[in-house]
Design a protein that fits this description.
alpha+beta, Pseudouridine synthase, five-stranded mixed beta sheet, 18 strands, globular
């Protein structure tokens, strides 16, 4: 069994809890996910089963979309609703115009410092383990990109936003930083991930639905092929005489392509590669001198 399932993670479960449930449900140990969701958050969690775990590194590179609610005037230790309050501003007033102006400032590439309550390792320990011991360590900022950041609703105290961002972005930190920029403080009160690459919330299945489909032997209805996770990469196809060589991971010369690449190709560009029958083979990267070299073979 191999493939990808778009699961709707409920709040209250860790991402590993979902993995554990799937391992029991399918009787397969080799299961992973592409992008951790906080226990209190809900939304899209892409589960990769069997050989599909090979696409995890590529899937984590894709854009992610979130809808978040933040509450102004309060700051917490965890930057969300589950931490202890560290500061509270009772009387404040911020306008919609001010909020829109600040949201514009956070669009684009920037450095973001990960929160102490996160799963990042520091000298062999998770940051959240140190935080629970009352320790605080210096964290290196990470380079992230906010591709889009839009206001959904604002009532003067609470703000709902839609965010499209790169991997490694902490929405909790984004909310807290917005609050600091407005000089009133803020914490993230709710979060749902609405999209991971091509996997969207409206197509996600709950664990209960998944269990039902397994019991009826209908898992194929939600099991997506490996290349579904790679649709952000351009596709190329080879001629029939090269079908066998590419299945063995041989480099591809430009002349063996059926696909007409009538656009500029740069060294390092990655592609989904298909044989002459349209079967997915793997991911290749353009090397140089019209040569594509294999990054990962999936057949």
């Amino acid at each position: 069994m191999k493939g990808i399932i778009n699961i709707l993670k409920p709040p209250g479960m860790t991402s590993f809890d979902v993995i554990f449930c799937c391992r029991k449900l399918f009787g397969i140990k080799k299961i992973g996910h592409a992008g951790t969701l906080d226990p209190g958050a809900a939304g899209v969690l892409t589960i990769c089963i069997g050989r599909a775990t090979k696409v995890v590194p590529f899937l984590t590179e894709t854009h992610k979309d979130y809808r978040a609610e933040m509450e102004f005037g309060t700051e917490t230790t965890t930057l969300d609703a589950f931490g202890e309050v560290t500061n509270r501003v009772e009387d404040f007033s911020i306008s919609e115009e001010e909020v829109r102006g600040v949201l514009e400032e956070f669009k684009g590439e920037m450095e973001q410092i990960p929160p102490m309550y996160s799963a990042i390792r520091y000298k062999g320990k998770r940051l959240y383990e140190l935080a629970r011991q009352g320790k605080k360590v210096e964290r290196k900022p990470r380079r992230i990109t906010i591709y889009d950041l839009e206001m959904v609703e604002f009532d003067g105290k609470k703000l709902t936003i839609d965010v499209e961002c790169s991997k490694g972005t902490y929405i909790r930190t984004l909310c807290a930083d917005i609050g600091k920029r407005l000089e009133v403080g803020a914490y993230m009160s709710f979060l749902v991930r609405t999209k991971v690459g091509e996997f969207s919330l409206d197509k996600a299945v709950t664990l209960e639905e998944l269990e039902f489909l397994v019991s009826k032997n209908r898992i194929g209805e939600v099991l997506e092929p490996l290349d579904k996770a790679l649709e952000h990469l351009r596709a190329i196809q080879v001629k029939s005489e090269f079908d066998k060589p590419i299945s063995n991971g041989v480099s591809i010369e430009w002349d063996y392509l059926v696909t007409d690449l009538n656009y500029k190709v740069a060294v390092g560009d990655k592609f989904r590669v298909y044989n002459s029958k349209g079967e997915f083979i793997g991911v290749y990267a353009y090397h140089q001198k019209d040569i594509f070299k294999p990054e990962r073979i999936f057949v």
